[in-house]
Amino acid sequence: QKEVEQNSGPLSVPEGAIASLNCTYSDRGSQSFFWYRQYSGKSPELIMFIYSNGDKEDGRFTAQLNKASQYVSLLIRDSQPSDSATYLCAVSGNTDKLIFGTGTRLQVFP
Amino acid sequence: DGGITQSPKYLFRKEGQNVTLSCEQNLNHDAMYWYRQDPGQGLRLIYYSQIVNDFQKGDIAEGYSVSREKKESFPLTVTSAQKNPTAFYLCASSIGQDRTGFETQYFGPGTRLLVL
Fold first, then answer.
1. Which residues contact A5 (CB under 8 A, 6 or more apart)?
2. Is the pLDDT of residue B105 over 70?
3. What is the pLDDT of residue B116?
4. Is residue B5 scored above 80 in pLDDT?
5. Rg (Cα) of chain A, in Å, rounded?
6. CA of B107, closest CA in chain A: separation in Å?
7. If you average pLDDT over residues A24-46, what whole number do you get?
8. B50, A102: Cβ pair inside 8 Å?
9. Which residues are CB-contacts of B114 (< 8 A; sequence separation ≥ 6)?
10. DSSP-assigned letter for residue B73
């Protein structure tokens, strides 16, 4: 079983819609959760991190964490074509090592 | 202007050759990391260093070597023992252990290594 799992996609949504990206993890001791965006041919850039159960909002992005069910999600409201990228979920078990999922490719069409 | 720089952007390796990828950061971060990314795969940890003059193997260290002589620099050498080196190599840094937000990693622009 992979430690961090994401659906590879592509997830296709129309412009202006809400994109919902999901990630599950296997280590119940995980404490820190990160979402990175990676454009094709570029390096990952940090979008959000979340430590506590519940929702965390930052502009059009909302991260949701449910430790009991071992999943973390990223919602992108009012999706734009510029949001088209691969989104990587990363998980840390209170060490300085991150475990990355393989990413979900998001396509936002006009 | 703080950040992480990697050079070169593209690197070509001949059979049997060792090549070195550069990573420099001016964020005053204690910890630095090297990852490899292959198409359709997640990031895999090669080596990491939490402090100067100390480093640990990650999940796929075979065929690679590193040094950490300065806080700002963490070069990666891809040796001839690495039989499938073609990949996108990413360097990252974080503030370091025992400090708020130590788990958060920031990435450099990457180096794409190709075998001739």
1. A23, A24, A25, A101
2. yes
3. 82
4. yes
5. 13
6. 6
7. 94
8. no
9. B10, B11, B12, B13, B86
10. B
Chain B hits for A8, CB-CB cut-off 8 Å, are 40
Q: Answer whether B96's CB lies under 8 Å from B31's CB.
A: yes
On chain A, the residues whose CB falls within 8 A of the CB of B90 are: 43-44
Q: Which residue has the higher pLDDT, B83 or B66?
A: B66
Beta strands in chain A (DSSP E): 4-5, 11-14, 19-25, 32-38, 45-50, 54-58, 61-66, 71-76, 85-92, 98-100, 104-109
A103 contact residues in B (CB cutoff 8 A): 42
Tokens 């300065």 belong to B70
Is B104 an interface residue toward A (CB < 8 Å)?
A: yes
Contact between B101 and B95 (Cβ < 8 Å):
yes
Cβ neighbourhood burial of B79 (10 Å; 0-12, 13-18, 19+): middle
Tokens of A42: 């570029």
Two tokens, residue A67: 């430790």
* A46-76 residue pLDDT tens: 999 998 899 999 999 999 999 999 999 999 9
Query: Number of CB pairs < 8 Å for A and B?
Result: 50
pLDDT at A89 over 90: yes
Taking residue A48's Cβ as centre, other Cβ atoms within 10 Å add up to 18
Which one of B103, B109, B110 has the shortest CB-CB distance to A92? B103
